[in-house]
Amino acid sequence: MFKHEKMLFHPVGVERPNPRYAALLQEQLGGGNGELKAAMQYLSQSFRVKDPDIKDLYLDIAAEELGHMEMVAQTINLLNGHDVDASAVPSGEVQTHVQLGLNPGLINASGYSWTGDYVTVTGDLCADLLSNIASEQRAKVVYEYLYRQIDDKKVRETIDFLLNREEAHNAMFREAFNKVQDTGSNRDFGTTKAARMYFSLSAPSKDGEAPQEQEVRPVSFR
Questions:
Q1: Which of 1, 14, 63, 162 has the fewest CB atoms nearer than 10 Å to its CB?
Q2: CB 163 within 8 Å of CB 140
Q3: Structure pTM?
Q4: Within 10 A of 55 (CB to CB), how many other CB atoms are there?
C-alpha cells in the first residue's frame, strides 16, 4: 500500500522559466537512469525478496524515488512556464509543446517514451543489488551533468538534494550487498581455479609463453 503526501519530499523552485533546460531535465523523469526507472526497478525486484530487511529497503527506496519523480516533474513545470512555445526549445524534445500541453511526460530529453526495458530484475539478490548500485551511480552522473548546465540557484538546490539522496541509496545498497555477498550467484559452485585468475593481457609476452596470470582477490565494498 502506498500513501500520497501532498507536501513534496523536498521543496522545489526556480528563479525564472527556462524551457530549454526543462527539456534536459526530462531525462531524469522518463530516461533510462531517471527516477521512474529507479522506482519501478526496486519495486519490481522486491516482489520475490525473502529477507524482510532487504525487502523493506527496496520498497522504502522505491517509494522515495516516486517522491523524487514528483519533485522533478514539478521543477519541469516551473521551468516550462505557462506558454506553449516550441521555439523556446531550439534543440532536444518538443513533444511537451505539441503533444502534452507542457505537462511533464514520461519521455527522456530526446522525446523517446519511457520503457520497461530500462528495468533490470533477475531474482538474484547479488545481481540485483549490484545493478542497483550501478543505477544509483549512473543517476548521480546524470544529475552532475545537469547541475553543470544551469545557473538557477533554486534548481541547483533541488539537484543537489537529489544527488545526495542518490549517494545515500548507493550506500544503503552497498551495505545490503555486504550482507548477502556470499549467497546466490556469488556462491562458489565448484568452479576451477580459472574463476579466480586474472590474465595480464596488456603486458607483452615472450614468444611461445602463455599470458601471465595472478590470483584475484574478491572486491569488497566495506
A1: 1
A2: yes
A3: 0.85
A4: 15
